[in-house]
Amino acid sequence: MFLNVFQSGIFQRQFRRQLWVSLSATLITFCHGIALGWLSPMLPKLLSPAETPLSFSIDVDEASWLGAVISIGGITGNFSFSYLMNRFGRKVSIYALAVPHTCIWFLFYFAQSIEMLYVARVCAGLTGGGMFVVLPIFIGEIADNSIRGRLCSFFTLTMNTGILVGFVVSSHIAYHVIPCAVVGLPVLYVILATRYPEPPQQLIRWQRVEKAEKSLRFYRRCDGPNVSKEEERAYQKQFDEMRLAIQQQDKDSDKNSLSFSDFFTKRSLKALATGLVLMIANIFTGTFAFNNYMSNIFDAVHTKLDPNTNTIIIGAVQILGTLASIYLVDRYGRRILLIVSCAGSGIGTSAFGLYAFYAEEQKVDLSAFSAWLPVTLMAFIIFIANVGVISVTMVVLVEILPHKIRSVGTSFCLGCLSFFAFTSLKTFPLMMFHLGLAATMWFCGVVSVICLFYVVVCLEETKGRSMYD
Q1: Residue 257: is its pLDDT beyond 80?
Q2: pTM exceeds 0.85 for this model
Q3: Fewest CB within 10 angstroms: 2, 18, 24, 443, which?
């Protein structure tokens, strides 16, 4: 299956530069993934006075705050990077993402109190909140319509790869070695970012038409000496259409500046409602909380395998799910992947809740299944969520919002995403402690079913939709 991807699609000559730039830009999501994956294996160590690598240990309430404060930074990052992107452009925002991320590793290394870990997690939230605003829009602007879905999915692929690396290094490498090994990556990311230009759309809006033309030639690989007449005609047609569309948008904006009424049109309200449902699906189907508390979940169901080993297996499965999404998203569309993903997440979390009910609450002897069934069920949940709910959400959000409200609407939806993430990360360990893992999993299953109903009834296919609509 994946051999065909290498022979066509994003690996064709005219798309290779877009692929390279997308991978360079998403290096920061790989770094962010390491910071996210760091927490799950590290949390049980921090909770144990005997095993903590620091001069202090934490309790359950502090652990829940350590998980949740990332979302406080996320909300701040959503809106601050949205302003930065619109005021100073995509490239400045891309450079700025490296600043809070670099701070994470210095704070982890020099942590002398739980407050320093809190600040580090807030910095992780700033990076994550900014990434979710800046990178999908940046990649969506530089990508050809035919491969936009796949390139945007690299956002999730690199983050999941980073999470896996975070799981591994946090499980097997000494605490103070990890920051030293990782802190150089954001520097490399900034160096790579100097090698590609501002997207042509932004340059046209700044009235820098000549630079915009050079930028589009760069991204469409029409800047060399061996450009054919056919490629030149196709490029010129695309540039003229882009310039006219953006100039018309600017004229419309000058006549009708963005106002509250723009958010209350039928199309805008439906798009915002869809965005909110997708944000709810992304968080409350459980995958985000699972990634942060994976080792604790496996410990609760008394699996025979080491909880950290199970966590690493799940990290690898995440990558497989994202690869499947990259292959499928531009072939079969976004809607069908979301339907399959919501349905599968509902089935998987309900089944895991049933296993947890008998293993944790009824004390039934499930030793014959404990070595393989919990990790198999969790692998299914994580795989199916990454095929759709996790990977496709940001692609659909950028495509479904009308252009006039896209920037503000994206920030609003991602601000809600950060709030939902805070709620999930803060309440998940408390729900596990007070209600049990089974009830917590069943709650995620109910959310999956509700989101499935909305997607089936209300969501339109966005595959191939123009970014200028």
Answers
A1: no
A2: no
A3: 2
